[in-house]
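Let us work through a complete example step by step.
Step 1: write down the sequence.
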Amino acid sequence: MNRFLALLSLLPAAAFAADPFPVSVQIDLSGNEGPMEPIWRFFGADEPNYATMKDGRKLLGELGELRPDEVFFRAHSLMVSGDGTPALKWGSTGMYGEDGRGRPIYDWEIVDGIFDAYRENHVRPYVQIGFMPEALSVKPVPYRHHWTPEADYDEIYTGWAYPPKDWRRWEELVFQWAKHCKERYGEEEVLHWFWETWNEPNIGYWRGTREEFFRLHDHAVNAVRRAIPGARVGGPDVAGGPGGDFLESFLRHCLEGRNAATGETGTPLDFVSFHAKGRPETVDGHVRMGIANQLRDIDRAFEVIAKFPETQPLPIVIGESDPEGCAACQGENLAYRNGTLYSSYTAASFPRKLDLARKHGVNLVGALTWAFEFEDQRYFAGFRSLATRGIDKPVLNVFRMFAKMRGHQLPAHSDHERELGEMVAHGVRGAPDVGVRAARDGRTATVLAWHYHDDDLPGPAAEIRIELAGWPGSAKPVIRQFRIDETHSNAFTMWRAMGSPQKPTGAEIRELMEAGGLAEMSAPEVRTDSAGKAQLAFSLPRQGVSLLEIEGL
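Step 2: predict the structure and record it as tokens.
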């Protein structure tokens, strides 16, 4: 009880002062709006070597449990020279070197360990073919950087960001790696993987020209397809939605350009990828999120993809899809990351990505969250991550909620859900966004509700009343409610109530781990009428997310 009172004492008094407001929700249990697409099941990180470390393996296991063998992980630096020692925005595998006579030396031990960690935890690689090994770079010095959050971001762009000095050896390296993966994991397995070249070639990550990137990509794709003829290849994982005209130029190259590796017209393209980021800022002493910026990136990129009849039906993966750009950076405008603003933002943004895909008639299959963990850093250090020192953050529980939503999507409407066009243009700056999505799988329905606002300020709770049409008259369902808010599924609030310890005791760590899991709270009661409708009612605080699970319909 003392711990619970301590948690409540951390809430601002204004959170209790304002009168709640009513929200009306309608859901049709007999409707069907198509499959409930699990676009959430993609994750990634700058630092590939964390996957083989203690807390990294633990988190991979938690991600794999969400949807075994359907979760994908993308990492930078899988081809970078080095001994595998991790650091912020750095990783290495040392897969390529040359002997004294300039002959290639291949070493797969470290990269195998990374992919083994994925597969042992039922996660599959979204293979990023990059970056440039030191022995192949046209400008290898300096190569290893030692970046910190206090340093200039451009300091990370060293010898690994440059084109190869030998295009033939670049293609052969990629071929040997893909061939090795097929031999180690089996052809049937690697055919499930995604293969793409580099990262954000329209900004500092690529120090060559656009045409040189197209050449790099052509050779990489040709290499993968030589080793694994049916491999799923795509790209370009460009920054900033369409990245100006970069995405369109890339698509034109793949459709009708001269392939630098084969001399033929066009380059195989099985999926299209780009990145979309929000833009939080500090306003009058509080964080204001920039969800509109992220949605505009997506809107513009979908528009480009839909322009081409050949690419409109292709699967799309938003290869990084986050509230802002730099997971390892720190700052006042990034203070949202530990608490419920991040979780409510995530719950509110993912459905809108699918809404934008429907608007443009494109095939969105994945939106990758570029957040993992930072091994052996301070507890709740302000990085964008899913967990800290093995303690899960509130945002991870949103993905646990998403994972429970299976089957087909049900028609669902909230009278306080902000209109899509308004959010793309302005974000959520006036009235809050209280939205809902619902799914049904056999006799089980799930209802996700969120209460989001761009401004990290207290506000009144939403009194949600749900009307369920198509309720079976004889149903006696079991209803469970899972919740993320200041006192549920929230290890950060618990940690602050402990006094923010950087050396918690064993008992405190166990308590934090328990607090970091998805919490269940009392479920609302069902009231039914003779017209085949049922009503549920519950209160949802600002920045809260609830998942109702209704079994036995």
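Step 3: interpret the result. The mean pLDDT is 96.
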